[in-house]
């Protein structure tokens, strides 16, 4: 059957109706760490100060900061991984193409070792 | 192509579209953070009495100036990066002309041999089982995989627009003007698009189908079709 394979609609879970945490890389972890961090910060602040309102503010602020902070960190690592994957793919393709030919860098190295000895 | 209830972007088939999908995810995460904050503030405001003795609020005014600026910078930087990336012209391996008519597309491959064909939508009554209604065409655009393709888009009569969401391409087809775009299909597959500029009664019935095949298959198709 012609067409590309998309993920099934039933497999997505959208927070606030627009952020698909199941299929977007790093989204689920960001939200979970944000929630956990917010709980810890809010509860900790409350235990230290007994101020409910301010503790809620701290919890929400912590949620946003931790969520976004982890998001940027995770996406940066993901981008680096993608670049490495692309370089590896290109390197493997070039190796297959040039192996044994005069363009093979390994052959040049072996040749120079022989000439040195 | 999109599923029946799909609201999200289609799976990317080109590096530019991959970047756009990633930027979309990034923008949605920022939007989630802002919505969470707004919902919380709304809850606070609705649970307070309607009176205030505040005369000045320097700190909060500083916060609600600097924070939106930071958010805009966080969105603008990746956006501008992709914008300039989309405008890069890497030496294309193939040039394809797409000409919009009422109501079909015609394509010309004139790099090596003169190959011209029209691409009409397959009527629903003639659609084979399992094919997609209002999306299939009689002659697909065949392009080689992992090759930069330059598309020159124009129109013969009225405004049209050549769009393929999976490839991240949408270019207006304007009579008397040549618009250029390029894409690189990084995997084999069939990618669907539809005319994206209102052009008359059958505007919804002039789809675009791009089929990306390995280079050897493209060459054999090209030689078979030209002869």
TrEMBL record, chain A:
Listed transmembrane segments: 31-48, 60-78
> Which gene produces this protein?
Cox20
**From what organism does this protein derive?**
Sinosuthora webbiana
Check the record and name the InterPro entries matching this protein.
Cox20 (IPR022533)
Q: Does the keyword Metal-binding apply?
A: no
What protein name is recorded for this chain? Cytochrome c oxidase assembly protein COX20, mitochondrial
Q: Which family does it belong to?
A: Belongs to the COX20 family.
In terms of one coarse class, where is the protein primarily found? mitochondrion
Subcellular localization: Mitochondrion inner membrane
Against PANTHER family, the record matches this protein to:
CYTOCHROME C OXIDASE ASSEMBLY PROTEIN COX20, MITOCHONDRIAL, CYTOCHROME C OXIDASE PROTEIN 20
What keywords is this UniProt entry annotated with? Answer: Membrane, Mitochondrion, Mitochondrion inner membrane, Transmembrane, Transmembrane helix
Q: Quick one: a GO biological-process term for this protein?
A: mitochondrial respiratory chain complex IV assembly
TrEMBL record, chain B:
Q: Where in the cell is it found?
A: Mitochondrion inner membrane
Membrane topology qualifier: Multi-pass membrane protein
Known CDD domains for this protein?
CcO_II_C (cd13912)
Q: How is the cofactor bound?
A: Binds a copper A center.
Looking up SUPFAM superfamilies in the UniProt record yields: Cupredoxins (SSF49503), Cytochrome c oxidase subunit II-like, transmembrane region (SSF81464)
**Family recorded in the similarity comment:** Belongs to the cytochrome c oxidase subunit 2 family.
Could you identify this protein by its name?
Answer: Cytochrome c oxidase subunit 2
Q: Which organism is it from?
A: Sinosuthora webbiana
Gene behind the chain:
CO2
